[in-house]
Automatic annotation (TrEMBL):
PANTHER family with a match to the protein in the record: AMMONIUM TRANSPORTER MEP2
Domain Ammonium transporter AmtB-like, first and last residues per copy: 27-452
Any Pfam family matching the protein: Ammonium_transp
Family statement: Belongs to the ammonia transporter channel (TC 1.A.11.2) family.
Organism name: Paraburkholderia kururiensis
Name assigned to this protein: Ammonium transporter
Entry keyword Transmembrane helix: yes
Assigned keywords, A-Z: Ammonia transport, Membrane, Transmembrane, Transmembrane helix, Transport
Membrane topology: Multi-pass membrane protein
InterPro entries assigned to the protein according to its UniProt record, in alphabetical order: Ammonium/urea_transptr, Ammonium_transpt, Ammonium_transpt_CS, NH4_transpt_AmtB-like_dom
Length: 454
């Protein structure tokens, strides 16, 4: 595919000859990282927590918080090294295990030649992605999974699904390695598998949303339906909490998407406006479809539309123009509405909080539509050729083939890892709480607490 502008390099350079980080870029990346932390605690916890029954509110808060923190620890021990050091096309090495060799003076590349950021903030920013992505899976198995089973599964899935897919999509040598055609060939040969295929993913459509979304579907199938599913009311206990959580996710998502530019630049402002517009369009789209079909637009539908818009624009935000973002958001609202209300009933799976219908379906749409609307002829940025130092010729059909590689690889890899990991957990410690504990509610049966007191 030539030398391409993709996403999130990890090439680090040290020593006196290394360029100095810009304080504005560093400050922005610190803020962006904090925004993504806010997405996990409290954003995701409140968003998910409001959608479960009151007796399971604290269990969801506990699962999302502890999963995030546990995987943050594993990221420092070995995750960063496996994802973002040179190894093979699927896994990095262990040269930076325990963050060995990284100091306050270490730097990581951005997307501009000669521009770097401190490596510690790059490590931290990527930690937030690696830790919140597995936490999304919690929504597929909510209200009946053992806490110990959730943690054991997350360690396995993080290690064997998230890390290799992140490496496949985002690991490359960085722009400064592209000094000639020969150097570019050498740099491309050391990159991740999907980078070599030419797949583009600005902030995680494949790595985050498809990856976690298909895992949630596998989990929902393997753990089985909740006790009373289809016979008892399982309506959200607090849409107020869900609205608050969704709003925190939206604000935090600007750190997620805009921070992925790695600089406080014009490219970052493009990611900002496309993230904003796609979310608005998807909220309007979902609300309009639901209003037309069900005669009453719902709060749950509106916030689900907002999340669908955020999901669909994630891989595209730095590549597509504002009008492309509006179209993508409009498509996501309608498509994910069908994923939650049509496809879910068709396959008959109890995906408790609609992770598959929103994240996986929206992520697939986003990854594919990125290939279309990144085209300069449709207002996109195209793909930068670092050897020629200009935007390369863009062919939508060729890019769609590359995007299909990203979608297909993420779906199959994550699904296989998820099946094996859930099965191992079930055979060793069991996936589900017992029926009595499930009826009582996981807050009391698993954690000895209650969210609300009469």
């Amino acid at each position: 595919m030539g030398t391409l502008f993709l996403a999130m390099p990890a090439w680090a350079q040290t020593g006196p000859a290394a360029p100095m980080p810009n304080k504005g870029d560093t400050a922005w990346m610190i803020v962006a990282t904090l925004l993504v932390v806010m997405m996990a605690a409290p954003g995701l916890g409140l968003f998910y927590g409001g959608m479960v029954r009151a007796k399971n509110m604290l269990s969801i808060l506990m699962q999302t918080l502890v999963v995030f923190c546990l995987l943050g620890v594993l990221w420092a021990l070995y995750g960063y090294s496996i994802a973002f050091t040179e190894g093979n096309a699927f896994f990095g090495g262990l040269s930076k295990a325990f963050l060995a060799g990284i100091t306050p003076d270490s730097t990581a590349a951005t997307f501009s030649k000669g521009v770097v950021i401190p490596e510690f903030i790059y490590v931290s920013f990527q930690l937030t992605f690696a830790a919140i992505t597995p936490a999304l899976i919690v929504g597929g198995i909510a209200e009946r999974a053992k806490f110990s089973a959730v943690l054991m599964f997350m360690v396995l899935w993080f290690t064997f699904s998230y890390l290799p897919i992140a490496h496949m999509v985002w690991y490359w040598a960085g722009p400064d390695a592209y000094t000639s055609a020969a150097a570019a060939d050498k740099a491309n040969a050391s990159a991740g598998f999907l980078f070599q295929k030419g797949a583009i993913d600005f902030a995680g459509g494949t790595v985050v949303h498809i990856n976690a979304g298909i895992a949630a579907l596998v989990g929902a199938v393997m753990i089985g339906k909740r006790v009373g599913f289809g016979r008892e009311s399982m309506a959200p206990h607090s849409l107020t909490m869900t609205m608050i959580g969704a709003s925190l996710l939206w604000v935090g998502w600007f750190g997620f998407n805009v921070g992925s530019a790695l600089e406080a630049s014009g490219g970052a402002t493009l990611a900002f406006v496309t993230t904003l517009l796609a979310t608005c369009a998807a909220t309007v789209s979902w609300t309009g479809v639901e209003w037309a079909l069900k005669k009453k637009p719902s709060m749950l539908g509106a916030v689900s539309g907002a999340i669908a818009g955020l999901v669909v624009i994630t891989p595209a935000c730095g590549f597509v123009g504002p009008m492309g973002a509006l179209v993508m958001g409009g498509v996501a609202g309608a498509l994910c509405y069908w994923g939650v209300n049509g496809l879910k009933r068709l396959i008959g799976v109890d995906d408790s909080l609609d992770v598959f219908g929103v994240h996986c379906i929206g992520g697939i749409a986003g990854a594919l539509l990125t290939g279309v609307f990144a085209s300069p002829s449709l207002g996109g940025t195209g793909i930068y050729d670092y050897t020629a130092n200009k935007v390369a010729d863009y062919h939508i059909a060729d890019q769609l083939i590359a995007q299909c590689w990203g979608v297909g690889t993420s779906l199959v890899w994550s699904a296989v890892v998820s099946i094996i990991a859930f099965k191992l957990v079930d055979l060793t410690i069991g996936l589900r709480v017992d029926a009595d504990g499930e009826r009582e509610g996981l807050d009391v049966s698993s954690h000895g607490e209650t969210a609300y007191h009469p």
